[in-house]
Amino acid sequence: MNTNTKLAKAVRLAMMFGASATAVTSAGAFAQEDGAGQIEKISVTGSRIKRADLETSSPVSVFDAQDIANTGVNTVSEFLRYTTASGPGGNTEAATLSQVAGSGSVDAKGFGSSYTLVLLNGRRLPVNAIASDFVDLNQIPMAAVERIEYLADGASAIYGSDAVAGVVNIITKKDYQGVNLNVGYGTNMEEHDGDEISAQLTAGAQSGNTSILFAFDYFERKPVAASDRELGSTAYLPGVTNGDGRSPYGLPGFYEISAEANNQELQTRFADPSCDPSNVSDGYCLYDFASRYQIQPASDRQSIYTSINHDLSSTVRAYGEFRYSRAYTRTSNAPAPGVLDVSASPYADQFLQNNLSAADYALYQDAAANGDASFLMGRRYIDFPNREKDNINETFSGIVGMSGYIGANYDWDFHVGHTKLTNRQIGASGQLLKDSVVDAIAAGDINPFEYNTFETREELAVLQGLQASVHRTGESEQSFAGFTIGGMTDIELPGGYLGVAGGIDWRREAFTDRSDPATLDGQVIGGAGSNGAGARNNMAYYVELSAPLFEGFEAKAAVRRDDIDWTGGDAAKTTYQLGATYRINDNYMVRASYGTGFKAPDLHDLFLGQSFGVTDAIDYTYCENNGIAAADCPQQQLNSRSGGNADLEPEESTNYNVGLIASPFENFDISIDYWSLEVENIVGSLSIQEIINNEEQYPDLVNRVNGRLTGVGDEAYVLTNLQNLNEESAKGVTIDMNYLSSLGQYGDMKWGLKADHQLEHMRQTSNTQPLCDDIGSTSEPEWKVNFSADWSKGDHTAGAYVRYVGETNDYIGGRAVGSCAYNAEGLEVDSYAQLDVYYGYTINANQNIRVGIRNLTDENPPISTAFGWPFYDQSLYGNSGRFFYAKYDISF
Predict the structure, then answer these.
(1) 6-227+296-301+308-334+389-432+467-609+644-685+721-891: CATH homologous superfamily?
(2) What does the CA dihedral 741, 743, 749, 752 come to, rounded to 10 degrees?
(3) Which end of the chain is more exposed for a tag (fewer CB within 10 A), N or C?
(4) Which Pfam families match (predicted)?
(5) How would you classify the pairing of strands 116-120 and 166-172?
(6) The model's pTM
(7) HEC string of 142-184?
C-alpha cells in the first residue's frame, strides 16, 4: 500500500489535530514522519486483524481525548449524545422519571440501547440488572479514556450478540508516565443550579519491564427543580395539543361511591367540592404536580481504574486491568397517588351527609348496613414526603491476560475476567403501605378529606409508621475468557499479503432482580417491582480473512458461530460479514459491506417472573361458538398470564453499507455512506384482545377450559408473555467531512461536519399491524447534524460546536388500526440548534485552563407532548439552560 497518498496524508492530519476522522486509527500509529519506515500496525474496531491500512470496509469514527475535552462534558454518555451516533431512546442520567436512575446509554440508529454493543478495550461490559439489558456507560471513568471508536455497522460476525446497529469501543490509556490532574466546575448562568464538580487524576509510571496506570474520577451534579425551568415547570400547557399532563390524583381529590339497596342503585364519581372549577374534569380534580418534581436529580460518581503491564520477554507481555465504579443518584418524585377505601373513617359520615342528596345518603346508609356499599377516595398524599429513593450502581471488574507476537507477522492475546454490576434502589421516604394507611384512616389518625400537618410527636410517629422500607436489588455478573491470534501471512496475493485472524470466546452471564415483599404484593402506594433470575452460557468460534486480491482492492470475510444455552432453552447462530474496499486512485476510495447479525434474548425477557391476573376483553370466539352475535358479545374480565418466556429465540438482522471516501484537495476529506438495517423476530407482546381476535394464528397462546376463559379456574387463560413477533428496518445516509485550513499568522482552523439523514424507519406497533414509516414522527427527525470549528494559535485555542436536530411531528392519536394513517394531525415539534463555545489557554508546558459555555443562546428543548410531562424528549435533549464551565489541567 502506498502510505503517502493525498488521502492518507489528509486523514493523518485530521487525526493529528483531533478530528473525528472517517478513517480509524490510534494517534500513535502516525508518530513517524513520511518515509521514516513502515507504518505501525494498528487495531481497528470491527476487525481482529492488525493492519497498516487507514480505511476499512465499514465506517468507523474516532474521537480522541481532545475531542471529548472540547465539548466540556463529564461523562461518556453525554459525549455520545453530542455526536449523531446516538439516536432517540438512549438512557440519560438526567432523566426525571426512570427505572434505571443514574445510568446512561447510547442508542445507535434508533433501534434501542440493547442493539448497540459497548466494549471497553474490545471486551464486553456487564449490562444493567434492573429493567433492561443495556450497558451503563457511567461505569467508565473519563480519566482513563484515551479515545472512543464508533463503528456504524453491524458486527456480529466479529463480536457476536448485540452488535446489530453499531459498536462503541472505549479505549483506555496505556503505558502512561507522569501525573495529571484535571478539576472543573460548572453551573447554570441564570438559576445557578445544576452545579457540576469534577476531578480526574491520572498517574502512570514505568520501571524496567513493568508499567502501571492509575486513574481516579470524581463527578458530582446538583439537582435542578422543575419549577426553575420554563419547560417542565408546569404539567399544563393550555392551547397545546395534548398539553394537559395534570394528574387526576391531587388534594383535593375525587370520590367513587357505589351502593345497592331497596332495588335502587347509586354509582357516582365526583371531584371534591373545594376543587377549583377550572381543574374539574370528568369527575376528577386535576393536579399540577410539576412543582414537586425535579428536572435533574442529584448524583455523584467515583471511579477507579488501574492497569499493570509487565514484559516477560521481548515478545510476551502479561497484563491486568481492574476497575471499580460507584454511581449514586437521589431521585425525588411527587408524593404517592392512589385510590383507597375511606368508608371506615370517622370523618366519612359527615362528608357524605354534606355532599350527597338526602335520598342518596339514605340509600348509601341502607346499603352499607348490608355490606353492599363502597366509598373510595382517590388522592395524592401531598401531606406526606416525596417518594425519594437512593439509587446506587456499583461495578467491580478484573481482567488478567497475556499477549505477544509470534515472529514478525502474528500477534495473540489470551485473557480471563469477571465483572459484577449491582443496582440498588432503597426507599428513603414517602413509600406508603396501603393497608397501614387504610388502618390509620379508620383509626382517625389521618383525615383523608384534608391536609394533615403531622406536627406533634404522636403525629410524626404515625407518619413514620406508615412508610415502608422498600428496596430492589439487581445483580449482573459476567465471567469470560478468550483467545485470539491473527496477522499477515506469508501468502502473497496480487495486491499484498493475506491477513487472517481467529479465536474462541467463552462467556457466562447471570442476573438476579429482587424486590421487597410489600412492593411485589402491591402494598406500596404508587410502587412497582419484579422478581427474576437466570443465567446463560455462550461459546463462540470465529475466523476472519483480509485478502488484497489486486492492487488497490481488498476483500474481507468473517464468520462466527455462537452456541448459547440457558435454563429452559438454547440457540445456535452462525453469522457472517463480507466487505471490500477499492482505491480508485490516490484521492478516492469506495467501500462496501454486507453482514448478518443477531441479538440473543435479554435475560430479563427470558426469566421475568410469571404473574396471573384478569384483563378486560371481548371473547368473540366463545360468542361465535355459542351462537351469540358479535354485537351482543360482552366485555368481561378474562384470565391472563404474563411474564418472561424461556422459549424465546434470537432476533436476526441483516445490514449493508456502501460508501465513498474522498480527498479532492489538500487537507480535506469526506465520506458518504448509505446504510440499511433490517431486524426480524423482535421480541414483543400482544394485547389479550389482539390474541383473541387472531386465535387461529396464535393457538398456543390461548388455553380454554370447556371453551371458556373465565369462571372455570386458573387453568383457563390467555398467555400475554413475550414472544418473537415484530419486524423493524431503517435506511439512511451518513456524511462526515473534515478540513484543516491555515490562517497564516492568525493560526489554524479545523472544520468538522457530521450529518445523519434517515431515509426511513419502518416499525409495527404489533405483529398484527402493518409496517409503517416513523421518520418525521415523534423523536424520529430526518436530519441530525453536528458542526465543529476549532481554532488554534500558539498557546490559544477556541472553538464552537453546533448540534442540530430536525423538526418532527407528534401524532398524538396514534395510527389507525390496520393502517399507517394517523388518527389526528398532531403537534409540530420544532427543530433544535444548540451552540457551544470554549476558549483554552496554555499557561506553560504543564498547565492549561479551559472555559466554555454550553447552550450559549439558552435554547429550550422543543415542546413534544407525546411523552407527557415534562413535555420534551429527555433522551434527545437536556434542559440545563445556558451553562458555564471552567477546567484547570496540570501535569507533573
Answers:
(1) TonB-dependent receptor, beta-barrel domain (2.40.170.20)
(2) -40
(3) C
(4) Plug, TonB_dep_Rec_b-barrel
(5) parallel
(6) 0.88
(7) HHHEEEEEEECCCCHHHHCCCCCCEEEEEEECCCCCEEEEEEE
